[in-house]
Amino acid sequence: MSQAVPQAATQPDPKRWKALAFIAVAQLMVVLDATIVNIALPTAKDDLDISTANQQWVITAYALAFGGLLLFGGRIADIWGRRRTFITGLIGFAGASALGGAATGQEMMFASRALQGVFGALLAPAALSLLAVLFTDGKERAKAFGIYGAIAGGGGALGLILGGALTEYLDWRWTFFVNIPFAVVAVLGALAYIHDPAGSRNRSPLDIPGVLLSTLGLVALVYGFTRAESSGWTDTYTVAMFVLSPVLLAAFVLWESKSKAPLLPLRVLLERNRGGVYLSLGLAVIAMFGLFLFLTFYMQIIREYEALETGVAFLPMIVGMIAGSTQIGARLMLRVPARLLMGPGFLLAAVAMLILTQLETDSSYWGLMAPAMFLMGLGMGTAFMPAMSLATYGVEPRDAGVASAMVNTSQQVGGAIGTALLNTIAASATTAWGSSHLKEAPALGKQGYQYAALVHGYTTAIWWAVGILVVSAAIAFVFINAGKPQAPAPAAEGDGLVKEPAPPVVVH
């Protein structure tokens, strides 16, 4: 039986709720940026004379820097301080956004996107780890992560709306400039209300070999899937990346197992519940990115929606995401085990995807798409909220940054895989349908025939997404065995660190 923790040691930060508001603003900025630029890309491409072959680098430059440096950013937050890393990430992200908005050519645009990725890799894990160390009470943690989960899940859809509005009514450059006021508000709030809990920093030296191996391994993995989408799975460089990445990541794991001050302590990665969260969440993101991708294609190509109209059409998903995170996930997290929220949440999202497999060229928005999107948001919101919390739950404060970085890494890698894999499946299915239905072309007309082939490709890929979500749910049910949260546990002794009491331990 552990001794009682003195009251002063467990006193929560009195400014934590105000801090949450500004952490949420920063997180919204990062999540918005993942989709807002996609809407503006066609206009920016023409304005800056970016070739069709090079336009992918507007997305790829960001994805490589962000995905590759997340673990580094998470550990920097642990060592340097989360507040300082958070503010540095915000200022750098705003500066990179200003550079992108002012771009006069493709080189300047690519550089700005890479810089956004670098500073985003500092900002995202710092934001999540701040929540992990500021909110240790079970009820408060549920509310805080409910809000965070709603933003993390729904922000991408909101980015489509904002990107469409800015591109249509102002200029594509404002999809970059809009980040600046977000960053200014978040920096001012951070200076006033955010503080690192005493003793939560990690005083270990930075693991340079670990940084190099993890960064190169993750960059190779993300680039491999990104290149597969544009150049094919048998492309020489694609194959080389898929060979190089596992070699580098295996070397990283071997190094971490022997290092005295590892970048990613294997205790963080291999704990059963966190490992289950990282894996199930990464798979679920594959499916969710597929939904964004194919519904956007369907609405803009088949239904000929304008950019803003497409964005607004995703509103049911945002509503469902907010409801799932704040009204279901946050309310039930303290009453039922996490697996009983994550598993059913992913299964509900699978049902939504199953509905979308019935898409046809003239499907009703209100009769099919809107209900499916609402269910998708509801399921993902219900699952994301406990997943975000459990990923940093019970981890020592000194490891909160890198544990948070793993959440973002699983999402980023899942997004890269989802975009490449599902897009390839859709393209192959489209080609196959076109070849086998040539006799129907005269009756359908040229456009009708092309559209029917495209929709078949979309629905085929969505069927795969259904299967991926079912697997994600199965992993949640099997691997995640955490019970309901208990009271905060006292800090461990004898590790040479002065720490606040650790976050609540997970009950098996």
From TrEMBL:
This is MFS transporter. The keyword Transmembrane applies. It comes from the Bacteria. The chain crosses the membrane at residues 20-41, 53-73, 85-103, 115-135, 147-166, 172-194, 206-225, 237-255, 276-301, 313-334, 341-359, 365-393, 413-434, 461-480. PROSITE patterns: MFS, SUGAR_TRANSPORT_1. The keyword Transport applies. NCBIfam families: efflux_EmrB. InterPro entries: EmrB-like (IPR004638), MFS (IPR011701), MFS_dom (IPR020846), MFS_trans_sf (IPR036259), Sugar_transporter_CS (IPR005829). It is found in: Cell membrane. It is a multi-pass membrane protein. Keywords: Antibiotic resistance, Cell membrane, Membrane, Transmembrane, Transmembrane helix, Transport. Residues 19-484 form the Major facilitator superfamily (MFS) profile domain. Pfam families: MFS_1.
